[in-house]
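Re-run with default settings, no changes from the original entry. Doing this only to confirm the output is reproducible before filing.
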Amino acid sequence: MNKIIHDNGLTPQRFFNLAPLLANKLRACYAKLADSGRQFLGSSNQFGDQTLVADWELEEAVIQFWKSTKFPIGWITEEHGIFDLEGAQYIAYVDGLDGSAVYLAGEGGRCGTMLGLYDAHWSNFGGYIGSLLVDYGCIASSGGNNLVAARDLGAWVDPRAQGQYERIRVNPNYRSLVAYADLYFESVSRAAEKLDEVKFTYLEASLPYYIDLAQGYSWLVLECTRKHSLEIAAAYPLVHEAKGVIVDLITGRDLGKMSRGLAESNNRLIVSTTDLQIASKVRERLLVDKR
């Protein structure tokens, strides 16, 4: 059943009101961690990756914030795993610290917390409530902003986390803008090679890719599904509310019309850009076999 429940629950407007409060709590947690956040917990997460203290604590801050609201949320997370799905009215996708390697380097690069919230009564990505992305990068690296999006309320940025939100949207005049590709993954690297006239940038974190697309600084993001696709699920509400598109390469369909089960696949190419026409042109190039 694909039907938004309009009641006293966690509506898009409530999410929009609460997300900035969570962003403030996350920034306070991040500041408090300081260098201690770069220590390893001594255990690995569900994917076999070592967990930093910051990975765990920032994710924990997201979970505890929403638990305090008493809304019945099920969780799909990187460090805490999957839990509370039975009987949940909402599903949260959380990466507490996207770009852990960037954070570990300690040089002010862009990394941050990504949250996407969905109505559990919807089976597809189009059933989102909203998203929150908190960029902990330094201002010199174009970081330091909070971004909030909520269904039918638009996408908004709080520059330098000053509490003053401004509405944003993608930039259709893309020719001078940056293009991103997650070149860590071989499937994405092979795809990027087919677009040999495009100069791709790789930042070791997904968060800045989608923030820059939504703010009009980027025109193209190439990624692939993996590890519950937390970053893609968190980014979809933001990009969609900023009037951009996130498209499945195989089918050419916008993710809003596709099952969230896609998030559980691996190495399926996902194209994010400013509109469906550009997505179609990119898709045509990527489906060409250059062997």
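Residues 1-6 have pLDDT under 50 and may be disordered. The chain is about 30% helix and 25% strand.
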